[in-house]
Amino acid sequence: MVVKYLPEVDGLSKFGDYSPVAIADGVVAIAGQFGLDTTDPASQVRGAFANVGKALEAAGLGFDDVIKFNTYVVGRETIPHFMETRKEVFAEIYPGGIYPPNTLLIVAGLVHEEFVVEIEAIAQKDPAAS
User: Tell me, which fold does domain 3-129 have in CATH?
Assistant: First the structure.
C-alpha cells in the first residue's frame, strides 16, 4: 500500500506537524477541522464543514464520497448547537436527506481553548471514476 500525504491544503490551518489529508488505496482520511473565524458554536460547525469540504476537494472528492464523520464537541452544552447547525448544513450538502454515519464524542477541550467543535472525515474515491 502506498500512502500519499497532502501536507498543505489551500485555506486550511494546521496546528502541529501532520498532514491534513492522507490517501491510501482510494481511502481518504481528513484530519479534524475547525471553524476558525468565530467563537460562536454554530459558526464553528459551519466553518468546520466548509474546511472538510476544502480537504475533500484537495483529494478530488466531495461530500458524496464521505463514508463517515467523527465529531468532537466540548461539553454537553455544545451538542444542541452542533445538531441544529449540522441539520442546516446537511440539508445543503446532502439534499437527498441520506447522511453518512457520524460518531459524536464529548471532550474536555480541543487544541485551542476557543474551539468547541472539531470534525474529521473518512471518504472513498469511486474506483470507477479513476
Answer: 60s Ribosomal Protein L30; Chain: A; (3.30.1330)
